[in-house]
Structure formats: C-alpha cells, structure tokens
Amino acid sequence: MTDITPQVNAVLKSKEVPPITRHRYSIDQLDEFLKEAYRIHTRIADLTSYLKANRAAYLSATPASRTARRNGGPAPNSGAAQRPLTDRERAEIDAHSKTMIRQLNAAINGLADAEKVRQETSTLLASKKRNKAGFGALGRWAAGGAAIEKSPEEQLQESRDKSINAHREGVIFFLQNRLQETGKIQAFMIETRLQREEEKAKSVLYKSRGVGAANDKVDPSLLPQQDRKSKAAADSYQLPEDFDQQLSEEQMQMFAEENQGMLKHLGQQLDQVRAVHKSLEEISQLQTSLMTNLESQNAHIEQLVQDSFFTEENVGRGNKELKKASERPSTARMLYHGTWVFCAFLVTWDLIF
C-alpha cells in the first residue's frame, strides 16, 4: 500500500494544522495500573512457556538415567536439553508452578483491590466536590435546578470514569483468564502423571501376583497350544505340603527380603500417587477460585458496560432537564429578585426621605 503521509502532511501544512507524527508506544508512559498489569502478564507468559517447555519430559514414560537419579539435578528449563525427569524433578516442577500460580493470583487480587479503592476514592472526591460547589444543594435549588441533578460537566466526568473503570476491569478479567489457562496446562500434566502412576502401581501389583494366578482367569481355549500345555503342566504340579520345611533359612530369608522389597516398592508407588493426587487437589482449588473470580468479574464488567451505554442518554436527558428548569419560573429565583427589588426600594426610600 502506498504511503501518502507526505501528501497528507503537505495538505495539513497548507491549512496550518500540525502534521501527522508516528506514535511510539512505550510502557513507561503508561500509568501504574497498566505497568503492574504488564508485569503480571509477563510472569504468566513465562510460567506458560516454562510448563510447555517441560511438558514432554514431564510426561515421558522413559525412566531417568541413574546419573540423574543419583545427582538429583534441577529440573530442565526452556533452554535445557529435553531428557526424562526423575520423580523428584517432577515434584519440583509441580511445587514451583503452584507457588507461581498462587503468587500471580495474589498479585491480580491485589491489583483488583487497589482499583476498587481508587474507584471508591474517586467517587467520594467527586461527591465532595459537587457538594462544595455553589453551596451544594442550596446553590442548585437557588439556581432553579433540582437538588439531585448533575451538571453536564459532572455527567461527562462520570462517563469518563465509567469508561476507565470498564477498561481496567477488562484488564483484570484478561489476566485472570490467562492465569486460568496456565493452571489448566499444569492440571492436565498432573492428571496425566497421576493416571500413569496408578497404571504403574497396578502393573507392579499384577506382576507380584504371578503369571499363574492371571492364567486361572483365562479360558484355556483362547490360549495358544504352547500356553495351554504350560498351563496344564502348572495346574498338574502341586507343591508338597512340607515345602516350607524343605527350604533353608537362607532361602526363607531371601524370600522374606523379596517380599519386603516388593512391599516397599508398592509403598513408594502409593506415596507418589498420593503426592500427585494432593497436587491435583490444590490445582483444582486454585482453578475453582479463579473461576469464581472470573464469573464475578464478568458480571461486574457487564454492569459497567451497560452503565456506559446509558451515560450518553442520561447526559442528553440531563441537558434537556436543565434547559427546562432554567426556562420555567423558579420560586427561589422569584424570591431572590423580589428581595433585591425590596431592598433597593428601601435604600432609595431612605435616601429620598
């Protein structure tokens, strides 16, 4: 597209109008509310990138190397090479993400509370200014207008305040929505990890029962011929009644150690499932809190937008009412003029006589 800015500037110069200048956007020129909103949004974007960068390694079913399990190195970030993570590193990612989400949620709530205080203060100052101007309601009554009516300037300022309030409420709603999306990413990762940990625990428990116990539930006609022969041989074989007495103490101790090791492994798997389930519950609580804030914020924004739509109509109607009030005779105005005429008559009478 052809740039016609020089031609437009030439026309504006001939009309003695300032030329068009390119607006350079800078965050430093914004107010403190938007600066804080930008900082919160940057932190949310960083957390989202962090989760997405580690999602593949976090959800990988490949066990971590012995060196990684032994060293317990820090969790990889977006710039590190992707590798399978240990359970400790996954727990560190969960803890870091939950801490960041809590901090960001608190920052957004603090921003919303500060904006609420600003709105209340602005409303209070506007009310005090309105009451002080022209002796408040008495001055408005003496001018012939109603005591509760607002001037066009006041209605225009109120319209501006409502527009600013609606914009800032929208910014807070946007930040809460982005944080909720980030929480959904972490919740998905934790849910997937919990599902895989449960499947792993079930697999270990299934293996501990032995292959023979599993084959008892299978129809022999559905098994291959070799497996049917093996199953028949296993069924025909029975352990002697004095099998335990035939084992030596070393063999009994070895079997006991194996059982203890299996129980310990199952206990570790259960602890991991419980830890992941606890993390999922905490994320669910944060998601519920964010959803509640979003619903209330959305209702507030809709109310502000609806009020803004009626502001222009109210300003026009107020101007008409003020015009009618100035045209019709007012008791206060008549009393003022009557008093002024009477005082002038008394002064003149005193000067003459």
TrEMBL record:
Family listed: Belongs to the syntaxin family.
Organism from which the protein derives: Elsinoe australis
Domain of life: Eukaryota
GO cellular component labels: endoplasmic reticulum; SNARE complex
Biological process per Gene Ontology, one example term: retrograde vesicle-mediated transport, Golgi to endoplasmic reticulum
Chain positions covered by the region annotation Disordered: 62-88, 216-236
Principal place of residence: membrane
Ranges where the T-SNARE coiled-coil homology domain occurs: 263-325
Membrane topology (UniProt): Single-pass type IV membrane protein
PROSITE patterns assigned to the protein according to its UniProt record, in alphabetical order: T_SNARE
InterPro entries according to UniProt: Syntaxin-18_N, T_SNARE_dom
Name recorded for this polypeptide: t-SNARE coiled-coil homology domain-containing protein
Phylogenetic placement of the source organism: Eukaryota, Fungi, Dikarya, Ascomycota, Pezizomycotina
Pfam families xrefs: Syntaxin-18_N
Localization terms from the record: Membrane
Gene3D superfamilies: 1.20.5.110
Keyword field contains GTP-binding: no
Coiled coil: none
Alphabetical UniProt keywords: Coiled coil, Membrane, Protein transport, Transmembrane, Transmembrane helix, Transport
